[in-house]
Amino acid sequence: MIKKMPLEEKIGNPDLFTGRKQEIHFFLKWMSNIQQKSSMSTAILSRRKTGKTALLQRLYNLTFEHNQGIIPFYYEIEEGKQWCVDFCQRFFLKFIFQYIAYKTRNTTYINKSIEMNHLEHAKEIIQKEAFDYLQDYLRSLESLVNNERIDLLWSFVRNTPRTIASQQNEFIVQMIDEFQFLNSEIYRDKETKNQMNDFAAGYMSTAEYKNAPLLISGSWVGWLMDELSTMLPGRFQTLPLKNLPEDESLEMIHKYSKLYQITITEETAFLIAQIAEGNPFYISTLIQSNYMNKDLTTKKGLLQTLEYETLNTNGMIKKTWKDYFRATIKKINSTHAKKIVLYLCKHKHRLVSKNEIRTQLHLPMTDDQLDNKMEALLRADIINRGNFGYQYQAVSDNIFEKVFISEYASDVDDFTPEQISHAYEEMLSQMQNNYFKLLGKYNQQKGLFAEYTLIDQLMYRAWKHTKTFKAMTHNLPKNFQFVQYDRVWSYKSSPLLSKDFQLDIFAQTQAGNYSLVGEVKKRDTKKFSLKEAQSFIKKIHWLIQIEKLDKRWVQGFVYSVSGFYRNAIQCLEKNGIAWSEHPGWLEP
């Protein structure tokens, strides 16, 4: 749990960040290996709206907060024409201010650095904080900027992080978001007419230094991969950022529904997770939708919200992909591109050969022209390539291809919005059938998501009916009362800590009331064991240490659907841990 957010995260409320446990663990280990100079510069690859920026910003804050010798630097390259001299100065100053913020632990320099685009501000702060060794860097920048020595300026600015790291025997991680815009948005002249289309190539040497490696990302996978392979071959290892796994999707759905006070059911949570396929943008948009008649407690209500968000011109999903399509199709500049994508959407469940595309669509173009067209579509992340030869397939996404169809099908084909609505309804019906099968398998009373049910009880009902819930629970202190908790959620320790553990429930209160720490077991047959009880007790002790809690006001609690072994109950009672198997905890 992060107590402070040095870098303001775009996600907004920090509690909205969900999942990415595997990726965070991987990258924090990657960062710790920087101190052994064994981490290679890395590119995160994923289509837009999958949470790359949220991941980078959270990694920055984790690295900054734990202060273990890796200095983080985050920079987002904005879309829009920029004169290279202005860009270089902004890049340099943002690095300097973040560097000073880390060294002084004064986070105001991070958030104010956006306003501090003038060298005079930097001079004052460097002098104030007594970073004398930075003065020479500032003077060099000022001279290069004033003389507009563009190539030398970019080389100097680009290499400053790793040069300072070498000079001071330090380690820096450089996180550059939207890396592909280095080539498309930076211009040699003030009038922004002469594009610096090989600006990223400057990292050919810089990216190899292990004391300040890069962690980059981009929203256009094909475009970024093309630049890495042609301009920076062998300089970056790549890591695909996939959609959230099902358990993290469900965690996100429940978390967002609680924070935004949107009522859902176990069934509709399951349906949202399935239709969104783990895409965080789809999940957050459906729950936060501005659809006036939004009702996420029924399949029909979810379908109406989904149709609004993807087919209505005011829907956020529709508007987002519409802007993306227009920019892409404009670059490709062809009705044939629309026909190709629509044809692949029609046959989305199989690979389609280049020859079939040309034959079936009667395309009046040469083989080379068709190759170029397909490469452009691949570069724009609108289609995928098969593993062998010239074979292609539509993007595997329940929503993406339907938004594309709704936007362009009327121009070149006979698709109608009603067909898309029917396809959504069929999908949700099939998903609903799968839900009922799962429900039958695990028993409805026990619940598919017992931990979320208990969280819901603690947030909204237990404190209103404290006598009832105390009666369903053994071994609570006599003075214990369920209260309106400040925060109720599952707790995951930071991967940076030596003790990596998770607790199903952490219901936190102000001092003077009991904070509840819970473990939930929803297995069909296996009872809660002595070994599990001992492990849970250790987790409570670790939580108290990490969060600096008053142990007198921390109450452990275990809920087990299938009950407890006798020696486990004895252990829990001896250590003051409450326990319950009462089905009332799972009843709404």
Number of helices: 24
Low-pLDDT segments, ≥5 res: 442-447
Q: Which percent range describes the beta-strand content? A: 5-15%
CATH architecture of the largest domain: 3-Layer(aba) Sandwich
Helix content: 40-55%
**Structural class based on helices, strands and sheet pairing:** alpha/beta
Radius of gyration: 27 Å
Mean pLDDT: 88
CATH homologous superfamily identity of the largest domain: P-loop containing nucleotide triphosphate hydrolases
Ends distance = 29 Å
Total of domains:
4
CATH level-3 fold name of the largest domain: Rossmann fold
Identify the CATH class of the largest domain.
Alpha Beta
Shape: globular
Give the strand line-up of the largest sheet.
Answer: 2-4-6-1-7
**Total strands:** 15
Largest sheet: 5 strands, parallel
Short description:
The protein is an alpha/beta fold and 588 residues long. It is built from 24 helices and 15 strands.
Topology:
Blueprint: H1 21-32, E1 42-45, H2 52-66, E2 70-76, E3 82-83, H3 84-104, H4 108-112, H5 119-128, H6 135-146, H7 150-167, E4 171-177, H8 181-184, E5 186-187, H9 203-206, E6 214-218, H10 221-231, E7 237-240, H11 246-259, H12 266-276, H13 280-288, H14 299-311, H15 316-332, H16 335-346, E8 352-353, H17 354-361, H18 367-379, E9 383-385, E10 391-394, H19 400-412, H20 417-442, H21 450-460, H22 466-471, E11 487-492, E12 502-508, E13 515-521, H23 530-547, E14 554-560, H24 566-574, E15 578-580
Helix pairs in contact: 3-7, 6-7, 11-12, 11-13, 12-20, 14-20, 15-19, 16-19, 23-24
